Amino acid sequence: MYSADMRNKPTGPAITRFAFASVLAVLLFLGAGCGGGTKPIVGKWKTGSEQNAVTWEFLENGAALSGNIRGKYTLGDQNRIKIQTPHATFVYQLKFAGDRMIWVDPKGTRMELTRVQ
To answer: In this predicted model, which residue has the larger pLDDT, 27 or 17?
Structure first.
C-alpha cells in the first residue's frame, strides 16, 4: 500500500511536534531581536554644534543628565518621553532620524538633538 519512501515519513503527532518546535524556534529567534537591545535614546546628544550647546545624556537605567543637573526619563506610548529634573518636568513627542532625535512639545515647538556618542 505505501511506497518505500512513505513508510519512514513522520505523520500525525510527530508532524505536529515538529511543526510546533519549528514555530517556537522561529518565535524565539525573532523575540531575541526585540526589546533586548539598547534603547535608541541611550547615549549623549547635543542641541547644536556651538561650543556652549546643551548636552543631554540618557542612560540605560533611566537616568538623564544635562550638565550638572541629574534627572530621570521614562519612555511612554505613542513615542513620548517624560524627563523629570529637580527643576521641571518635560513631556515631548520623540522622532528619530539617523543620528538625530527630534523633540516636539505639546505646543508644537521642535528641538533637534544630534548624537554625540
So the answer is: 17
DSSP codes joined into one string, 92-106:
EEEEEETTEEEEE-T
Torsion of CA 80, 59, 102, 45, to 10 degrees: 170
Give the separation between CA 87 and CA 30, rounded to whole angstroms: 42
pLDDT at 49: 83
Instruction: Write the CA distances from 15 to 11, 19, 21, 27, 96, integer angstroms.
Output: 5, 6, 10, 18, 45
Instruction: Supply the mean pLDDT for the chain.
Output: 79
- One-letter identity of residue 9: K
What confidence category does residue 51 fall into, taking pLDDT thresholds of 50, 70 and 90?
confident
pTM of the model: 0.66
Give the pairing of strands 100-104 and 110-115: antiparallel
